[in-house]
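Incident review: delayed structure delivery

Summary: a single-chain prediction request sat in the queue longer than the usual turnaround. Root cause was a stuck worker, restarted by the on-call engineer. No data loss occurred. The affected request and its eventual output are reproduced below so the record is complete for anyone auditing the incident later.

Affected input:
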Amino acid sequence: MSRVSRWRVEFRGLVRRRRVQIALSIRITVAALTALVLAQLLELPLPLWAVITAVIVTQLSVGRSLKASFDYLVGTLGGAVYGGAVTVIIPHANEIALLVVLAVVVGPLAFIATIKPRFSAAPITGIIVLLLPQLTHSSAIASASDRIIEVALGGITGAVVSVILFPSNAHPLVIEAAARTLNQMARALEALLAGLTKSLDVESLHRIQDGIGHALVQMNEVGAEAEHERAAGLAIGPDTGPLLRMLLRLRHDLVMIGRAAASPLPEPCRSRLETPLWQIGAAVTDYLRASAAALQAHRPPPALDAADAALNAYAAEMAALRRVGLTRNLSVEEVERLFALGFALQQIRNNLTDLERCVAERAGDGATKEDPCTPAMRLSPSPTSSAAPGIKPYRSAGAVSRTNSCNDDRAIAAPD
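Output delivered after worker restart:
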């Protein structure tokens, strides 16, 4: 292969890997050029503000661009109205008076911006409305109105370009973030369950947990952008709220297991539960990873049978421990840890059912679009299974029934 051919292949690979970033850079460039042309055609006094606004509001996704445009316009309008009113009402013929008026303009607007971030542009706009007439020798009213027109032009231009040119919807970004989070949760769960039978690497676990928290924060932001697109009629698809809330509940389950795994389980429970816990770790982590892949590929959810069987095996082993009285000699702290572990595994079972429904809805095969945080379809308890402390046996996927809450914890009991 010649050097030119190799460069061509590398360039195509770079374009494929960075297509989202390249599309964003093209949109920003086109928005800036379009805003400048329109400002010159309209003979606006300072086309600079139209161009800057167009660049600021042109974001990675359409939803983010719409939100940025609206927030910037609201902040600009508020700053222009307040700054113009103060400039007209309070005389500032000398430097001392100008400093006083500047403080009166900036102080309240900055305070409002700290409470309502959408008004972050208001202090800048107020300063421009106050000081720009000193340079252009125009009136404060004219300065405020020009500023509003310039920002409105730039904001509308950026939003329109984001919708028309290489539009990037936020819904695929939500799914990518959810898949990354599920993979991180699978790694964390594997490490946590291993820590119940041997020493836990706390530092590495903290890094994993922090990564999950960061991923959930990002997903929450992207989810808000997706809902802006849905509200504007620019995107279709399932509501992203149930998926985010399900992931938050899974995160809480991992936190509970982490507290139970602060030190290995006491003997003889440790040796008896080591194999069931390993089976849970293998089955549930495989399910989380398979669900992440199914989300990205728009496939139906994977089967829950292996995870259900592993959780029922743990329940059976805990029942056997109770029958022989091995839990009676444990300390209060050790009993509390077993209770917390069983409670967390119960919640994981419920949330895996919610995950199954979210993946099915994403694939277009969901029978319902009900929010998992409302009364939802649950796997029904098997009448033939023996209950164990902290975990409730279920039939495998198929039979379902209604419950009155998202997390039906009434069947959970502490070890004897």
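Verification: Residues 365-416 have pLDDT under 50 and may be disordered.
Action items: add queue-age alerting; document worker restart procedure.
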